[in-house]
C-alpha cells in the first residue's frame, strides 16, 4: 500500500481525489468525514488537518497537502507514472492545461459568487446577479461547444482536466442548482463519465446514497 491518505469531506470537491485514485488504480487509504449537520461546513477534525481547513486534503507521510489542483497534480506525478496527463510535446497539451485550470480558476469561482449572493439574500434584480449569471452562461456555452467537438476535455482520453471539470457540472449543482437540460453535449459527456467504473466506485466509497447528478 502507498502512504497516501485521502481525507474526503462528504459532498465536496474532494470527490475528485477519490476518483483520481480509482482511475489510477492506486492502493490508498480513504477517510470519510461528514459535514457538520447544522453549519454544513467541515467538522473540527477536518479543519484541524490543514491551516485552510477546507476539502480536499491529502496526507502522504509527513506531507499535508490542500487545494484540488495541487493535489491532482501531486498524485498524478508522484504515483500516476504519467497517466491521465498530457505532456507539452503531445497533442492536446494546451487544451489540457486550459481546462485543468479553468475548472477552479473561473468556473467554480464564478458559481461561488452565486452561492454567496444567495446566502446574503441579494435581490434577484440586483445588477450584480446579471453579471454573475452572464459569466456562468458563457462558461457553460463554452463547455457545451467543447464537448461537441471532443469526447473528453483534452481530447479522446480522460485526463486530470476531466477530473477537475466534472465536480462543477455535477455535485456542485446540489449547492447551486442549474438545469443542464439545454446542453445535449454536456449530457452526453456526463452519461459517459457516469458509466466509468472508477467514477462509480469513487462515488460509492465517498458519498454512498448521494443522488446522481449526471443528468
Ligand atoms: N479551491 C479549493 C476550494 C476548497 C473548498 O471550498 N472546499 C469546500 C468543499 S467543496 C469546503 O471545504 N467546504 C467546507 C468548509 O468550508 O468548511 C480547492 O479546490 O481545494
Write the layout of secondary structure elements.
Elements lengths: L3 E6 L5 H10 L4 E5 L10 H4 L9 E4 L2 E4 L1 H12 L13 H28 L6 H21 L12 H10 L14 H11 L2 H10 L9
Parallel strand pairs: 1-2
Antiparallel strand pairs: 1-3, 3-4
Helix pairs in contact: 1-3, 1-6, 1-8, 4-5, 4-6, 5-7
The protein binds glutathione.
Glutathione binds next to loops.
For the structure shown, list the relevant keywords.
215 residues, alpha+beta, Glutaredoxin, Glutathione S-transferase Yfyf (Class Pi), Chain A, domain 2, 2 domains, four-stranded mixed sheet, globular, binds glutathione
Notes on the protein architecture:
The protein is α+β, with helices and mostly antiparallel strands. It folds into 2 domains: 87 residues, Glutaredoxin, CATH 3.40.30; 104 residues, Up-down Bundle (Glutathione S-transferase Yfyf (Class Pi), Chain A, domain 2). Helices cover 49% and strands 9% of the residues. It contains 8 helices and 4 strands; from the N terminus they run βαβαββαααααα. Strands 2-1-3-4 form a 4-stranded mixed beta sheet, with helices on one face. β1, α1 and β2 form a beta-alpha-beta unit. α1 packs parallel to α3, α4 packs antiparallel against α5 and α5 crosses α7. The model has no long low-confidence stretch (mean pLDDT 97). Bound molecules: glutathione (GSH). Glutathione binds next to loops. Glutathione (GSH) binds next to loops.
